[in-house]
């Protein structure tokens, strides 16, 4: 997808550069308001009308306006270079996969690590909430282990263009307390190879249709 505007019109790259990489409980960086406020408004207006839970790859959606600009900016060399610099690793040679999440089910948020097919996870939270996220559930917690949601090093309100980036390591446990309702999250992953990306996109397409029949769920 070709960007129609410069990525720095959407993203505050200086804030990302100025935010130190945290190591507790694993390598990650959180940048509130990484998506500029005016862009959050436009993205909210152009968010794809999905209306159900599950992760929907961009190939299964019709993106318009600011939602398409957001995807193009994430796929830009500028964003890749900024993430490479922050994490100290090469990513430009790897394929990316982007999915949209529109709604959360009460049973989503199970404690998990991202699969070994993923190298780095990027999450952008595009929920507009005056005064922050008022619900007790739905705030992603970065955990020190898989045993409990209460043993966490960071809790992230999923609002107003907050950016989270982390390496997909075996100890990168995360999850959130139960929440049901709209919860707009865009996820991008650098994948291990192109074949894996195509397989995962196909799996997401099937899973999105079957999601309501699944008794368990994961979400970011």
Number of individual domains: 1
Radius of gyration: 16 Å
What is the CATH level 1 assignment?
Mainly Beta
Helix content: 10-25%
Major β-sheet strand ordering: 1-7-4-9-3-2
The global form is globular
Tell me, rounded to a whole number, the average pLDDT.
91
Uncertain segments? none
The fraction of residues in strands falls at 15-25%
Main beta sheet: 6 strands, antiparallel
**SS-derived structural category:** alpha+beta
First-last Cα distance: 24 Å
CATH architecture: Sandwich
Number of helical stretches of at least 4 residues:
5
How many DSSP E strands? 9
CATH superfamily: q2cbj1_9rhob like domain
- Helix and strand pattern: HEHEHHEEEEEEEH
What's the CATH topology label?
Jelly Rolls
């Amino acid at each position: 997808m070709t960007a129609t505007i410069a990525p720095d019109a959407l993203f505050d790259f200086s804030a990302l550069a100025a935010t130190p990489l945290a190591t507790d409980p694993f390598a990650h960086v959180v940048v509130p308001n990484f998506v500029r406020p005016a862009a959050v408004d436009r993205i909210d207006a152009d968010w794809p009308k999905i209306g159900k839970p599950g992760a929907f790859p961009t190939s299964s959606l019709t993106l318009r306006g600011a939602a398409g600009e957001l995807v193009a900016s994430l796929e830009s060399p500028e964003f890749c270079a900024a993430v490479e610099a922050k994490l100290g690793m090469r990513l430009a040679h790897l394929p990316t996969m982007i999915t949209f999440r529109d709604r959360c089910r009460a049973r989503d948020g199970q404690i998990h690590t991202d699969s070994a097919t993923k190298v780095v996870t990027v999450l952008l939270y595009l929920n507009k909430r005056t005064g922050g996220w008022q619900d007790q559930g739905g705030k992603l917690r970065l955990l020190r282990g898989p045993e409990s949601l209460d043993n966490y090093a960071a809790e992230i309100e999923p609002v107003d263009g907050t950016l989270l980036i982390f390496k997909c390591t075996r100890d990168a446990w995360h999850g959130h307390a139960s929440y049901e309702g709209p919860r707009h999250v865009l996820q991008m992953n650098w994948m291990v190879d192109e074949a894996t990306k195509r397989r995962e996109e196909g799996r997401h397409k099937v899973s999105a249709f079957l999601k309501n029949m699944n008794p368990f769920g994961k979400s970011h």
